[in-house]
């Protein structure tokens, strides 16, 4: 009798188990990672599930309508509630996924304003069971990074239309991209009614002269310029004050506010100051005179080294009634290190914030056509999130008369995202000029980046009371963000909307006319000498060349080195006022 009942119970349990289907799978771990051993069954995993969003194509249409100068709805940015209505999963989606989790003894928590992301913690043994996965400890030989990941996982067939992805699964920690990106100082040439010292070192005065940036104080308190901070990079007020006293004597009392996420902090011991954080803060506060600047320090509560921080900062801003008008981030990674599903989810998050009226800018990367950092490759490596069509990617230039592309400036074409409509004619024109050069090394149907560029070589900074120089697109993004913030200040003072998502405007005839086309230089990604200020162990060999080519070459019109060109403040302001 006991055996029969036991057998009956086993049969009933087997029948009750849902039919599973493979949801995501990769053939092997990313280069450099090796499988060590099965993950301990009792190790807890901080899991996240992305639910199918309600009407993401409708949100895209709404974003373009408020961002395209040719639209009657231009500048009429969406409210928090309007964006959430597009994103919030359907009730039946939420119910189905929660029922699956409850059946497995899991109580999930919503971690996004629209409820499209759920979080929970479970041991490896349960994750392996309910997702038919094989969580393994992987180690990265070069950096010593270790991670518990699986090469594939399954979900119930009935939830295929309800679950977009489960994380962490097939996306591995980024070993270099979420690091400060610094390049070797390269001599510059020429002057152009700028201080003579700008031929060797870039300061706020150089940039004000070169791009016509005003020193008049901004007046609009609602116009917030936000700076992302990751990987325990801290922005130091004492260093900022020293920087301003030396280089902005008319603005020596300027400061910034701090917002903390995911257990983040911003200690003010000068020895803890981060090169990246100080660079970003000194060249936002130092250029965007009077604009309220906020440093958002994202901690590592997720203890994963992956992209949770990128998601959490956007969700935190989406939860605010009045998010910043500009957000600049000097971090990123190679596109091929993140799953296509997760990249799409993050890109959709940028779409949401852009629809609210926030301009999102990212540094394009410092490896030329080799990606985030200079490295060996056989085909060109696009960076993320620069390949996302709902943000503005910023490349780097150098030199004064004329400006030319910085050789490290990452640019290329996404393998995940298609060419957006606003960019179609510009990319087509470039590819016609390119001909068969680099044939087979990049995706001819991918979204091109960067969109714009700005100076990025030999920026003078103060770190732990010491003055030095630093180079990289990490300098270019906060610089361009500062210029946009100053334009926004004037727009808001005139009763107009901030610029919001820039790209449809930038690629229009009016927008392109505000930029100086850069037609010299290329981006192989090679570095000729070690960085002047860096954590040099982050780049294994700065003498490597990028993909054994000269990369792409800057040319007339848009190109995947310098984008549409560098800013002219007066032209940009006049065009924005005329919209």
UniProtKB/TrEMBL annotation:
Catalytic reactions of this protein: Release of an N-terminal tripeptide from a polypeptide
The UniProt record lists the keyword Calcium: yes
One term under GO cellular component: extracellular region
Biological process according to GO: proteolysis
Binding site for Ca(2+): 517-518, 557, 559
Coiled-coil regions listed in the entry: none
Cofactor stoichiometry and binding remark: Binds 1 Ca(2+) ion per subunit.
Record keywords: Calcium, Glycoprotein, Hydrolase, Metal-binding, Protease, Secreted, Serine protease, Signal, Virulence, Zymogen
Compartments (UniProt record): Secreted, Extracellular space
Enzyme Commission number(s) from the entry: 3.4.14.10
Domain Peptidase S53, residue spans: 201-579
Principal location class: secreted
CDD domains (UniProt xref): Peptidases_S53, Pro-peptidase_S53
Enzyme class: hydrolase
Signal sequence, renumbered to the chain: 1-16
InterPro entries: Peptidase_S8/S53_dom, Peptidase_S8/S53_dom_sf, S53_propep, Sedolisin_dom, Tripeptidyl-peptidase_I
A single MF term (Gene Ontology): tripeptidyl-peptidase activity
Gene3D superfamilies, A to Z: Peptidase S8/S53 domain
The protein's required cofactors: Ca(2+)
Active site residues per record: 276, 280, 474
Function: Secreted tripeptidyl-peptidase which degrades proteins at acidic pHs and is involved in virulence.
Protein name, per record: tripeptidyl-peptidase II
Organism: Exidia glandulosa HHB12029
Lineage, top ranks: Eukaryota, Fungi, Dikarya, Basidiomycota, Agaricomycotina
